[in-house]
Design goal:
Layout lengths: L4 E5 L4 H9 L4 E5 L9 H11 L3 E4 L13 H21 L3 E7 L22 H16 L3 E6 L2 E2 L6 H7 L5 E5 L3 E2 L2 E2 H14 L3 E4 L6 E2 H12 L4 E5 L29 H13 L1
Parallel strand pairs: 1-2, 1-3, 3-4, 4-5, 5-10, 6-9, 7-12
Antiparallel strand pairs: 8-11
Length: about 280
């Protein structure tokens, strides 16, 4: 990619930080909520008029899946209104927009991986708000990259692997074994997005760790990579009820761009473990 001016929103999140490390050699501005509230249209308009980035990468979102069930307005503001504001302004100013979405836009009733052209049917407020954000971006700015990912994690931030590692001191760790997805190591996603933006092939893409697994098998693989001996017990989702419904099977695959694929999810686990130990 030629040297570009890039604005990254959601700078303090695990994906935002991974993106910043990826875009070395470019003129990068990375802002979090205290710098730019994307739900405020006039703030977005003023900020982009000052910066004039070539590309805006929106990694800002309301990601508290269970909290969204009781904070619906907040979820929709962060996941739909904010992206809509970015899309409207970037279109008016001739900029491309990268926006991230989720496997939670699907209901998980399939038995094969979901590709970009499969029908969406969210089960939760979070999923509905993210789908609304996708639709707003598509309508407002044709120069968009909508990237659906899944089970995102990094060595930094609040996520499943960091939580499960903190639980390793217990005698037994119980993990659900009937939810399947595609664990995605944030640096791998950042690298893939970097390559995607170079193509100018705007559209919707699935980008997640290749293959699929359950939370239980994911935990076992993680503990093995870290040399943790804690026993892991599989349990059904019914024994671990949560406010928001999760898709039971939401493994992602892509039909869109055969040259851009993330490594297998197992490779992400190995890299996570190496960094964790380091």
């Amino acid at each position: 990619m030629r040297r570009s001016r890039i604005l990254i929103t959601g700078a303090h999140g695990q994906l935002g930080q991974a993106l910043q490390r990826q875009y070395t050699g470019h003129e990068v501005t990375a802002w979090d909520l205290q710098d730019l509230d994307i739900t405020q249209f006039e703030q977005v308009k003023k900020a982009l008029a000052q910066l004039r980035p070539h590309v805006v990468i929106n990694a800002a979102a309301f990601t508290q899946v269970d909290d969204a069930e009781t904070n619906q307005d907040t979820a929709y503001r962060g996941n739909a209104l904010g992206p809509r504001n970015l899309a409207v302004v970037t279109y008016d100013m001739g900029m491309a927009l990268v926006h991230f979405s989720t496997d939670y836009v699907f209901d998980g009733r399939q038995t094969r991986p979901y590709h970009e052209f499969d029908r969406t049917n969210p089960l939760s407020v979070y999923g509905h708000s993210k789908l609304a954000g996708e639709e707003a971006v598509r309508v407002a700015n044709p120069r968009h990259f909508i990237v659906r990912t899944a089970w995102l994690y990094h060595t930094i931030g609040k996520n499943f692997p960091n939580t499960i590692c903190r639980m390793a001191g217990q005698d037994v760790v119980r993990v659900v074994n009937d939810q399947y997805g595609s664990p995605t190591f944030a640096p791998h996603l950042a690298q893939a997005v970097f390559r995607l933006v170079e193509t100018d092939a705007h559209g919707t893409y699935h980008m997640a760790g290749a293959g699929g697994t359950s939370w239980y098998e994911f935990t076992k693989a993680l503990y093995q990579a870290l040399g943790i001996q804690t026993s892991v017990m599989p349990i059904p989702t019914a024994q671990y009820p949560r406010p928001a419904r999760r898709p039971a099977y939401a493994v992602l695959t892509s039909l869109q761009h055969p040259l851009i694929h993330l490594p297998p999810w197992e490779e992400g686990v190995r890299e996570f473990a190496a960094q964790w130990k380091g």
